[in-house]
Amino acid sequence: MPRLSINQWSMKTTPCDRFIDAVARAGLDSVGLWRQNVAEIGVGRAAKQVADAGLSVSTLCRGGFLTASTPAARAEALDDNRRAIDEAHALGTDTLVMVVGGLERGQSIREVRRAIPATIAELAPYARQAGVRLALEPMHPMFAADRAVISTLGDALAMATASGDDSVGVVVDTYHIWWDPAVLDDIARIAQAGRLLSYQVSDWSLPLASNPLNSRGVMGNGYIDFAELTGAVAATGYSGKVEAEIFNESLWAMPVDDALALVKMRFDSLVAPYL
Amino acid sequence: MPRLSINQWSMKTTPCDRFIDAVARAGLDSVGLWRQNVAEIGVGRAAKQVADAGLSVSTLCRGGFLTASTPAARAEALDDNRRAIDEAHALGTDTLVMVVGGLERGQSIREVRRAIPATIAELAPYARQAGVRLALEPMHPMFAADRAVISTLGDALAMATASGDDSVGVVVDTYHIWWDPAVLDDIARIAQAGRLLSYQVSDWSLPLASNPLNSRGVMGNGYIDFAELTGAVAATGYSGKVEAEIFNESLWAMPVDDALALVKMRFDSLVAPYL
Prior knowledge:
The structure is a homodimer. By secondary structure, the first copy, chain A, is of the alpha/beta class. Chain A has helices at about 15-25, 35-40, 45-50, 70-90, 110-130, 155-160, 175, 185-190, 225-235, 250-255, 255-270, and strands at about 5, 30-35, 55-65, 95-100, 135, 170-175, 195-200, 205, 215, 240-245. The first copy, chain A, has one domain (about 5-275): TIM Barrel (Alpha-Beta Barrel), CATH 3.20.20. The first copy, chain A, is built from 11 helices and 10 strands. Chain A has an 8-stranded parallel β-barrel with strand order 1-2-3-4-5-6-7-10, surrounded by 6 helices.
């Protein structure tokens, strides 16, 4: 069984149905899906196409954006997250990636962080009932203001624990956490707590893209030591899929079969040996 | 006595002699200088001009870039750092800001970090003899690969301690550390250890500039809570200067007197009240 799963945004510019076909054609058996891309063909049809192709769904991206300051916006965000949970269930994945949201100017990042566990606790029972685990994703600190106030694995674990729900977990994405001095210990602690829900890989390439969100590199095109991080994940006994999640204009410009072949080759040489 | 000091790169495009004049004209009494800008007129002349204008020098930027992997490049970097220490002494400042350097592709960030304390220990006696303290600057994790492998205040303190020299300290720069969940505790720990050498301010503005190094915003133009961070610094008893260090194309495009007036106004309203 291959360990590699292809996150849909690694091939973001490929229509959903062609993406699913291409992954199956590449001999892989798992995809990470994105809600807005699935919406192109509808959740029902996507679920059927994935099943017919013999694929499983490692994660759904994404819930979150739960830091709005007004009660109305917060209620709307919670509703949207319940829909995301429903979609995860319908697509047959047990993991919903949560990008918790950023700040408004004038808010204290510490206060916004403090409110996260209670908000997650409001969603967790609904997720649990759907057989879906909420996976908090710490993002690189360059996204702390606009995307996710969770910046470290340690903080993600603390918030998952503080939510009071055992099913809430954490995503380990190399791009976001490779620089963290505590990363090796924190991976172990997260797994020890039964909360290591997803391992995602991409490289830290420079220079940053003009839209920094799209700066992720194919493994081997940057500075991340995949042996060390993958070894730390494997040492915990993690046996799940490893998602290649690479937002990169060059990769998007390639024919999808070539892009998949490149990602698979780099995964096989730089990540798989340490699993 | 004003607490504000103006870092030279906030007015990077202004020639050194005119920068010194402009700061004095603005009624301020301190500058943070940069080696390459000082070199325009020479260290001796810069020292004299600063003294004649009644200014002190809060810090010199910068030493560091000490992570080269070959012995020859490392020896050259150590030599350059000794020259930087000499220049700091000649300019009459007791603080040399150290940007320790990044990675080469294929190096483990953990191994590069592990080597830093011993390298700093090689320089520390020379610095001590010159009456100069080496101030390790943790930089935002988006610079971990290319500028400084020290990404957190906690790690900077650990490395300063591990250098075995009491004179080695840490720079707290809001831009680099504002996102860190441990920042308030770490500021206290650094001061408790007698190692809080400089407090620098600028804001986290979005979007990032095309050169991310120049994304720093004037205080009030971004997401940083200066009350909280400045309060934490002040609570330690820190009584030194506060350097406005703002690399920003818009600020550089302004007439220097206007730029200084803007920085001073924002400092007075957003930082000074919490000192």
